[in-house]
Amino acid sequence: MTGETEVHEPFDIYDDTLREECGVFGILGHEDASALTALGLHALQHRGQEAAGIVTFDNEQFRAERHLGLVGDHFSDAETIGRLTGMAAVGHVRYSTTGETILRNVQPLFAELDGGGIAVCHNGNFTNALTIRRQLIRDGAICQSTSDSEVVLQLVARSRQGKIVDRFIEAITQMEGAYSLVALTSKKLIGARDPLGIRPLVLGDLNGAPILASETCALDIIGAKFIREVENGEVIVCTPTGIESYFPFGKRPARPCIFEYIYFSRPDSVLGGRSVYDVRREMGKQLAKETHLDADVIVPVPDSGVPAAIGYSQESGVPFELGIIRNHYVGRTFIEPTQQIRALGVKMKHSANRSQIEGKRVVLVDDSLVRGTTSVKIVQMIRDAGASEVHFRLASPPIKYSDYYGIDTPVREKLLAAKYGLEEMRAYIGADSLAFLSVDGIYRAMGYDGRDNANPQFTDHCFTGDYPTPLTDLSEDQEFVRPPRLVEVR
Fold this sequence. Notes:
Number of helices: 17
Number of strands: 21
Helix content: 25-40%
Largest sheet: 7 strands, antiparallel
Radius of gyration: 23 Å
Distance between the termini: 45 Å
Strand content: 15-25%
Strand order of the largest sheet: 3-2-4-1-10-9-11
Structural class: alpha+beta
């Protein structure tokens, strides 16, 4: 690869990011349960923009609204909220990492059991769901969705335990991978977090009504009080009389996903006792310590690179400026299907602020580098705005490995860092220099001396290839031939 390298694949401004996972929310014992759930999902919208759903219980029956699209498109009017009656609700925002984006996959998923109904929301990914699903179908199960979340419902339904909590626990103990689950029955709000705590889940309270949510920002939007994080491996059961906890996996060290701090969680959330914003700013400071060079201005790639760029500027003493302005209103429907217009896609999402760039040595700061296609366009845009030098800095290590825990990373062959070395990547994106934060730098930003390779403090497989759970569905002896499935057409 040389400095003349060009992008040889079609450019899509939406195809060069790590897709968010999903967001879950539940509340028990509040007269405005559906409205509060809708607000909570608004706060979690960054975790999934493809679909949203709410299920409520009104002491007689469950009521459901599930739609493709954004929360605000479907749950912002009084008529819809009025149909979702009851003092208990669960809700979900979805980005599909497993299963197509079709209405029958939109959560919460619901099932009628012999002891009553149950609605389930899921964030994350089960790494043995296909294996179990195949066996369930062989045993006569009828699956109505292609989501791996349905496997939990099937296992709950088949359990011979007497109590719903015991059935739920028996089901999740058969699952591998990363997950946080929120379920609603006629009497209980149930939450669960995977044994390593890879996916987040928090407990809150609003005037005595318990709340479960993916992030603290969902509590803040409704004025709820943060109580604590649901512990790794904990099953938490909320009823009108109190809260009980179960630990079916035993106690073990937590290993939460490092990408929640780098990218996924909202900056105003608190995760593991740490302000996400403060952590990202500290990552920028560590990046400056490790990689800084002489420059005139620090420019974030909005919006994900802003906190790290602020930290980089504070550490290096080089001024921070908004050298790129983001258009928050661009949508897919505005991209015309012609190559000439498609090539302008990045300019519809980002515009160079020439007054802060022209004639200057620019350090661009972003959170991560995935395929590199957007970075190519941004570097060129900064050059076209008159920058004398363009240096690219990433506030995370190179992403070399795919994720199987709920982050929709491209296949490994499409990850830039999996294909090329540092100099080849620099030539590909066209920057004068390229540098990443080291793995130990990430851990220093989190308050550690570095990564404990014997007992890693976080799930960081995208950088290290160290997957913390079995990947049963990917084992070499498994060959999944999917039969023809129903495709919903309109």
